[in-house]
């Protein structure tokens, strides 16, 4: 993890939020390369769901919703983590993390923590629940009637917009609603870099189905999650595994729940969740709001409250997984290097262009022409003329640039350039006119 954190700061992927003031636990800023990588991940997910399919529609809900939404969903009463307090320092910790188990049962945690000390070596109090929703107020007066919450998840506004999307898009069950957006959780002990934070971004899709189709549709969305990570992002299957929630582990309303675990630096942890939420959400909101959220199948005449299959992944966790999976130490010509082997499709920088010597106007002129040509096609293209060519290659390897193009004196004679592959370090000569098409093919390969 220290290697990932160091590279993220050094190369502009992730910075500590408000670092010049000492930062704030659980909050991070994405740097120039981090935001490019993040945007590439989000766009690929959006394209694979909303743009590639006719039955999934996008929304962008407000961060602050009517607080009745969170009462109906159960968040006000039950969105809690088990907490335990150091009796001397009064520092608070996640009880399940100190106990080394994956449970929120207070009785079990109390037994497991009996006689254990805090990280500072002090006695611990009894575990208790802590609601993680962040509160604020709407309007000028901070009173109970004005209290609202920063949303703890993005799914809430998907469920409350079920009728709006169904009616405006003339959608027929089965159909899905997708959303990418910020959520806020007042984590007791944020940790592991951007894995567990207090401000996060989620990519969620809720798929509304006939209850009789729940098993088949559930397996389809499990397959989607696995294939997206392996085929679209190029994550190694050896770093992934399935974890099925036990009956005591999953939410009370869930009919089934599976997480894809990734081998993060701190160990295998949840990356992507696929859950059968039954009809809990629409039934709860129908009861609380008085609105009819059932669905009438016009062909069969059957009326039912749709079940929901949820597919949910955090942007930050996906970014950390991609950084971890890509981080590689190897050697080229006997020289050790750090190389980020991102799939070219998601690499923050696609191509770097260099004149062999920056004090030769004729080389700079041709390199500038090539740079402008590629910039118009691929967006994030870097110009690099600082240091010798070997140092430039190492710098681009460390930020994960798949291809480097060098304009040299031979380029002036025959209009060819050197194209270097990041992973193999092999170089080939290619004609300037064929460069764009060749790079397009390489960047889109599965």
Q: Which terms would index this structure?
A:
23 strands; BirA Bifunctional Protein, domain 2; 3 domains; alpha+beta; seven-stranded mixed beta sheet; Rossmann fold; 446 residues; single chain; 15 helices
Low-confidence stretches: none
| CATH class value of the largest domain | Alpha Beta
Oligomer: single chain
Portion in helices: 25-40%
State the CATH topology of the largest domain: BirA Bifunctional Protein, domain 2
Number of helices: 15
Q: What gross morphology would you assign?
A: globular
End-to-end span in angstroms? 28 Å
Read across the widest sheet, the strand sequence of neighbours is 3-9-10-16-13-12-11
Number of strands: 23
Sheet/helix structural class: alpha+beta
Task: Provide an overview of this structure.
The chain has 446 residues and is of the alpha+beta class. The chain has 3 domains: 30-70 and 141-323, Bira Bifunctional Protein, Domain 2 (BirA Bifunctional Protein, domain 2, 2-Layer Sandwich), CATH 3.30.930; 80-131, no CATH class; 349-444, Anticodon-binding domain (Rossmann fold), CATH 3.40.50. It contains 15 helices and 23 strands. Strands 3-9-10-16-13-12-11 form a 7-stranded mixed β-sheet, sandwiched between helices. A hairpin with a 2-residue loop joins strand 17 and strand 18 (335-340). The radius of gyration is 25 Å and the shape is globular. The mean pLDDT is 94.
